[in-house]
Amino acid sequence: MTRSLNDIANTSKYTTMTGSATILKTNDIFNRFAKDGSVLELGPAEGLMTTQLVQRFNRVSVVDASSIFCNQITTRLPSVTVYNSYFEEFSCDEQFDNIVLGHVLEHVDCPVTVLNHIKTFLKPGGIIFAAVPNAHSIHRQAAVIMDILETEHSLNALDIHHGHQRVFNPKSFRDIFLNAALPITVFGGYWLKPVSNSQIEETWSPKMLDAFMVLGEKYPDIAGEIYIVSGD
Predict the structure, then answer these.
(1) Which secondary structure element, helix H or strand E, spans residue 166, and what is its range?
(2) Whole-prediction pTM
(3) Using the 8-state DSSP alphabet, how is residue 134 labeled?
(4) Which of 58, 101, 185, 230 could form a disulfide with 130 if both were Cys (CB 3.0 to 4.6 A apart)?
């Protein structure tokens, strides 16, 4: 990673209009499949999704490698157990009913390694939920046609700002779960995204953004975000 995690945290764009809407929609979809009980969230950033999780689950734990994000959550959400650790090095004595990786796997060196490690903390009968940006999103396809991106998988300015290492497509996203010997119970998508985040934030209303979030669920292969549920 060319930028430090705390540098990324200090210049975070996760709480912009589009960033917040994406996180809240991720939480909404996760809740459709989640088991009651406990949840482990990887990569909570400022804790927008964490704030939602504490309203539903009996026990919430989070893991983030940024001490800045960890300190923010500890201060704001004292009931949450916070682990300041790289995902690959995370260790605890607990297993969880749910594990959430909301926009995490595009950041890490080896997604399969992370999935193989983190699944050891899942209770029998629990679920792993992961969401990532989709390379086949129509806004990326349009960017290639307009020569803004070389390919759908090229990293754009926002990817680089966030420290992304890759952009998954539906097949490559499924493949990492299969390579980690994790079943794919549900594959889906959300946010039919025709233009960039900055263009949306300049011209769209929250109601428009919500509508296109829902539309993406009808067209997962070309949605802006895709997700997988693994487990019972």
Answers:
(1) none
(2) 0.91
(3) B
(4) 101
